[in-house]
Amino acid sequence: MGIFGVDIHPQFQAGINIEEIRREGFDFMAVKVSEGVDGTYLAAGSADFLQRGGAAGLLRLGYHYLDAGNEDAQATVFAEALSTAGVPGMLDAEALAADGQTPILTITAIRGFLASCRRLGARVPLLYLPRWYWDRLGRPSLAGLPPLWASAYVSVPPAPASAMYQSHDPAGWDSYGALGVEVLQFTDRAPVAGQLIDADHYLGTREEFAALIGRPLQRKERHDMDQLPSTMMPADPDSDPRSWSQRNYDVGFDAAGGWEGSFAFGFGAQDWAGRTVDPARGYLNLASWIMADRSLSPVDAVFTLEEGGQVIFAHNPTRSYAAPDGAVGLTLNYAAPGGAYVTEGRSG
Fold it and tell me: By residue range, what is the domain housing residue 328?
């Protein structure tokens, strides 16, 4: 089950046959488009890779390698590259000091970079922050960050990616930092289109991956309900819901999509079996209005990192929250092993 992808670099994989990647059965690829404040990667070959990949039928992302410092300037470079290429992004957060061992990034810096990307209108639906890097950072909470693109390499000789994947350790899919793993990089030596490169696996369908990376803002009618995907089932159903793996979900309601007057929403979790200590069935961690300038405004003080969100009980959704003037969307970070729903309505 699942689909395979690759991640490539315009210098290290110079000359690779992009069309052959697709012919060999891969469905997606991530291409480096920027690093630090260096935005020359498109001209160096990434733009060609992405254009040809799209024409060949590959689902595409551009990724940015985050350096320490100048997060706003780096976000500007990345956002411009994604806009030029017309693709969503992935953040690569694994920078080390000169000793090759010590992390030089912080979770605060990563959050700041992603906040700047949002303000600039860049969509960054995935975060490559390897488990080993998270360990060296002291295992901090990653709540509120995009889902993880993780890595756990197999120890087998080069072979077709689908064959190499059969030797992967299932623990590579385990969540960490309160985030679930959506994509797993399982080798850097898969023979693809005549080169040995990184190969990745996604457990869902091509359509589900397209929704994950595109996650378009959904146009709404006067009253509507969104059924939200379930999150990973916790190993211990009776554990604190705040420790459960989370997903992000966006809703758009700009006037061009049919919204007029006031918008309001409520969030609820679907019931599921297995928990015995109480009727908790979900957790809404973060909820923010997306404003016209792409800035974020908390829906309520409770749905912030400082306050920690709200546990959601069975058949007991949140109250309704009305959007402020100038809001064009809503973004949520939630945990709901049985699935969740957002009720929406407008007046006027």
Answer: 223-346
Same-domain status, 59 and 175: yes
Amino acid at 313: F
CA 170 to chain centre: 20
pTM assigned to the model: 0.69
- Residue 2's SS3 state is coil
Question: What is the helix (H) or strand (E) element at residue 225, kind and residue range?
Answer: strand 223-228
d(CA 234, CA 72): 36
**């697709």: which residue's tokens?**
22
Residue 309 tokens read as 């969100």
pLDDT digits 0-9 by tens, 261-313: 456 788 999 999 999 999 999 999 988 887 766 677 899 999 988 898 999 99
H or E element at residue 29 = strand 28-35
Closest C-alpha among 170, 248, 192 to residue 29:
192
Q: Could you give the CA distance from residue 28 to residue 75 in angstroms, rounded to a whole number?
A: 23
